[in-house]
Structures are given as structure tokens and as C-alpha cells.
Design brief:
- Its main location: other.
- It comes from Kumtagia ephedrae.
- It is found in: Cell envelope.
- InterPro entries: Peripla_BP_I, SBP_2_dom.
- This is ABC transporter substrate-binding protein.
- By secondary structure, this protein is α/β, with parallel strands linked by helices.
- It folds into 2 domains: 173 residues, Rossmann fold (3-Layer(aba) Sandwich), CATH 3.40.50.2300; 139 residues, 3-Layer(aba) Sandwich (Rossmann fold), CATH 3.40.50.
- Helix content is 42%, strand content 20%.
- It has 10 helices and 15 strands.
- The strands form 2 sheets. Strands 1, 2, 3, 4, 5, 6, 12, 13 and 14 form a 9-stranded mixed sheet that branches. It has a 6-stranded mixed sheet with strand order 8-7-9-10-11-15, with helices on both faces.
- A hairpin with a 2-residue loop joins strand 13 and strand 14.
- The two termini are 21 Å apart.
- About 3% of the residues have low confidence.
């Protein structure tokens, strides 16, 4: 049986993605000087999802006719992200695309950008407060509910389920937890949830899975709020415990995840992962760049359906473009329209 090491190519892939980001920046810096500069602030670049999103966003920004400054990496530190954004503005950024490290901590950062007259588009994660030109993300409560529906149906509404939670300091972590839990309570009340925090850390997710898998012999399913961070470790834990079986085989532990990385697509095709709710990463990049350019041009938007299959909704004092997420199983895991099949690891 194969060894799931967090993909043997994981480190090499992230390094390659970082190289691609650097090449994209170099290309952007060679652009005409009259093009507006945009700064991209990443929360971290230690997993494929974030590395691919940074790369695709910089590319989309350049294709939209803007110049890119070197992307910053907060390494999971909200204070560093605040400094990063200030440095981007000092370096001449006229617009920002930010993926927040912390939904609360990003609020004063947005206030600072607003004071400087620099519009900020937030992608993937929403702020607790503070003014953004637009928020571009998926309906993460809906994502959690879709994962719940898949788990509940597979288990016939009964059994023990491990939920590996994302960082509850982020809207995505809270929403994916709330969406999943509310659905379980409403539709599958006989399911027993075992919740474990991970803070989006691979080592914490693996350790939590190890503890629960070894102490819960009747575990029926595992819900992972990020396959980018959690899937490889979970597969290794199940293999070491002698509990890794393919979909449809006896005693199979049902696995559901969120993100839809290239690795997750591969594991669905291999038969180890049952379902992934794929985030629209490619659309985060595309429409993050779109709204950043629109903000520079003074364009405004209103709540309601868009021309790209989503809906703009009110989110506090901001508007948020809620992009659709896709449920992926073996039947559609090779769909070339999925971002996980467009970006190769």
C-alpha cells in the first residue's frame, strides 16, 4: 500500500510555486510605469492551496492590466500581516488583495488602508469589521453543510464522526464548523461528533487524528476542513492503524474534506477520499483582480445576482461576492473545470 507522506512532492511543489510567484512578480515589475501597482498579502504560503492562490492571483492581476509588487507572506502572524500591508502601501501599492490571517486582527489594517486611500479586496476569508472594496469568498457555511450531507447519507444518519476543525479565529474555520454542526443537529441527530481543533496546522491535525482513530474503534467518518493541510496526515494515520481501506470496501472510514487540491483530486480517483467540497480558488484569483481594478476605476456594485453564477450579498458594512463551491466525488474528480485539475502538484 502506498505511503501518504503529505505528498512526497509537497515541499518541492511549494518551492516551485514560490518560484513561479517570483517569476510573475518579475514580469509584472517590467511593465509600463503608468500601470497601477497592486500588493498581495498572503496569510501563509506553507501549503499548496495558498501557494497556488498567490500564483494565480498575481497572474490575474497582471492580465487585468496592473503591475504586481512582490507578494508578502505573513507566516500565520497577524502582526506581521499588518506590517506587510503597510510596507506594500509604502512601496507604492494603489490597491490591495488580502487573504487575512485573522478575521479580527485585519480590521485595523483595513482602516489604515482606507486612511491612505488604498482600496482592499479580501479573498477567501472575511473580516470581522473594517471597510473592504469587496469580499470574494465561498459560502463556507454552505460548504460545511454539503460535507455534512455527504457524511450523513453515507452513514445512514448514525455513528461517530471526527471533525478536524479549522482555525476558529477565521470566518472560514467558524463557518465550516457551524455549517457542518448545524446540519448534523438538524438532519442527523443520532450522529456523535468528536471535535478537535487544528488551527490549520498539519501537525496538529495529524496528532488529533492519531489520538481519536486509536481510541475510537467504532469511528465511522472524518470531516477535514482543509484537505490541503489535513488529508495526507489523516491517510497516514489510517494506514498506520490498519484502517485505510478504499471507498466501498468493508470497514471503510468515510472521508470528507474541503478545498479540492490537486492531491485531493488524486486521492478521490485512487479511491481513498470519498468526497471533497472544492473551493473556487481560480475564481478567487480572477474576481479578486476584477474587483481590485474596478475599485481603482471608481466602480461600485450592488447586492444581487452576478453574471458569473454567484450572488453579491451584504456582509456587515461590506459587500461580498459569494462564489459557488462544487461537491466532488469519483464521478466528477477528473473534470478539467475544477481548479485542482488545472494546477498540478
Amino acid at each position: 500500500m502506498r505511503n501518504f507522506t503529505g505528498h512526497a512532492s509537497r515541499s518541492a511543489f511549494i518551492a516551485a510555486a514560490a518560484s513561479a510567484i517570483a517569476l510573475g512578480v518579475a514580469a509584472g515589475s517590467a511593465a509600463a510605469q503608468d500601470k497601477p501597482k497592486l500588493g498581495y498579502s498572503a496569510p501563509f504560503l506553507t501549503d499548496p492551496f495558498q501557494a497556488i492562490m498567490a500564483n494565480q492571483t498575481l497572474k490575474a492581476v497582471q492580465e487585468a492590466g496592473m503591475e504586481t509588487l512582490p507578494a508578502t507572506n505573513a507566516n500565520g502572524d497577524a502582526a506581521k500581516q499588518s506590517t506587510d500591508v503597510r510596507n506594500l502601501i509604502s512601496a507604492g501599492a494603489k490597491a490591495l488583495i488580502i487573504n487575512p490571517t485573522d478575521s479580527q486582527a485585519i480590521s485595523p489594517v483595513l482602516d489604515f488602508a482606507a486612511e491612505k486611500g488604498v482600496p482592499a479586496v479580501l479573498i477567501d476569508i472575511a473580516p470581522a469589521k473594517g471597510k473592504a472594496a469587496m469580499i470574494v469568498r465561498a459560502d463556507n457555511k454552505g460548504i460545511g453543510a454539503k460535507a455534512c450531507e455527504a457524511v450523513g447519507a453515507a452513514l445512514g444518519g448514525e455513528g461517530k464522526v471526527l471533525s478536524l476543525m479549522g482555525d476558529q479565529a477565521t470566518t472560514n474555520g467558524r463557518d465550516r464548523t457551524t455549517g457542518f454542526n448545524d446540519c448534523i443537529k438538524a438532519k442527523f441527530p443520532k450522529i456523535e461528533l468528536i471535535e478537535q481543533p487544528t488551527n490549520w496546522k498539519a501537525d496538529k491535525a495529524t496528532s488529533a487524528a492519531q489520538t481519536v482513530v486509536t481510541t475510537t474503534p467504532d469511528l465511522k467518518a472524518i470531516y477535514m476542513q482543509s484537505d490541503s493541510v489535513m488529508l495526507a496526515g489523516v491517510l497516514n494515520v489510517l494506514k498506520s492503524a490498519g484502517k485505510l481501506t478504499k471507498v466501498g470496501e468493508a470497514n471503510h472510514i468515510f472521508l470528507a474534506s474541503v478545498d479540492g487540491t490537486p492531491y485531493a483530486m488524486e486521492q478521490i480517483r485512487q479511491g481513498y477520499l470519498d468526497v471533497a467540497v472544492a473551493q473556487p480558488l481560480d475564481l478567487y484569483a480572477k474576481y479578486g483582480a476584477f474587483y481590485a481594478k474596478a475599485a481603482l476605476e471608481g466602480k461600485t456594485f450592488q447586492a444581487g445576482p452576478t453574471d458569473h453564477g454567484s450572488e453579491i450579498v451584504h456582509a456587515g458594512d461590506n459587500l461580498m461576492d459569494y462564489l459557488p463551491a462544487t461537491v466532488v466525488t469519483k464521478e466528477n474528480a477528473s473534470d478539467p473545470a475544477l481548479w485542482g485539475n488545472q494546477a498540478k502538484e
